[in-house]
Design a protein that fits this description.
Blueprint lengths: L1 H36 L9 H7 L1 H27 L5 H16 L1 H10 L4 H28 L8 H24 L4 H15 L2 H24 L1
Length: 223
């Protein structure tokens, strides 16, 4: 009976992951549509000149691709540890997918208006990252609190959950800083990209720090 339940849970989790992967793939595919429109030159320019004139579109594509790719990597790692799902988790995951499909819009705004209205453009981009962080934190927190994680992985997953709580506060600070310094905010977002490109390594470091503190507390109590 237990084996049948485990197989059913694995099937449901796989279905959710497969659906999510499809949405991520479509979102990335939609990014290239902006590049295709640059081929319709209005002033009779050649191909090379047309591409140079629309460098913003290539920048938007790159930023959007990296953003969605990082989201997919983190989504994949999170669901590696989630062994069963329920309806609420499906809807929370749906919110993340909604934000992912929305990502090409703020990245296009950033590329088009960064030089003209840097603060406003970066604020649009930053707000999208706030939504992504809220969605990622919600998935991990809900899965942990409702015991959708295998008991053997709960201690480690708590550390994994923590990094998304940290990220949420981090992007809120970056959002505020963009109204003070566009360069400083962009630097913070670039650092966020780099760290969350490898979420397992980040979570493992947090876990080791927590374990070291826990052992130190136990040692102090014995003294």
């Amino acid at each position: 009976m237990e084996e049948t339940t485990n197989q059913s849970n694995a099937k449901e989790t796989s279905r959710l992951e497969a659906f999510s992967d499809g949405v991520f793939a479509i979102a990335i595919t939609l990014l290239v549509l902006e590049l295709i429109t640059t081929l319709h030159a209005e002033n009779g320019s050649g191909l090379i000149q047309t591409c140079l004139d629309h460098w913003q579109s290539f920048l938007a594509f790159t930023i959007g691709f990296v953003t969605i790719m990082v989201c997919w990597v983190n989504h994949h790692v999170a669901f590696d540890y989630i062994k069963k799902i329920d309806t609420k988790l499906i809807w929370i995951n749906g919110f993340l997918l909604f934000v992912v499909t929305l990502t090409p819009f703020p990245t296009a705004i950033l590329a088009e208006y960064l030089a003209k209205e840097g603060t406003t453009a970066l604020a649009f981009f930053g707000f999208n990252y706030i939504l992504i962080s809220v969605a990622a934190d919600s998935i991990c927190t809900y899965a942990y609190n409702h015991h959708l994680i295998a008991e053997t992985n709960r201690e480690y997953y708590y550390s994994y959950k923590l990094i998304y709580r940290y990220a949420l506060f981090y992007v809120l600070i970056a959002f505020a800083i963009c109204f003070i310094s566009v360069v400083a905010a962009i630097t913070m977002y670039a650092l966020l990209f780099a760290v969350f490109a490898a979420p397992k390594e980040f979570a493992s470091r947090v876990h080791k720090i927590r374990e070291r503190k826990r052992k130190n507390r136990i040692k102090r109590r014995k003294q």
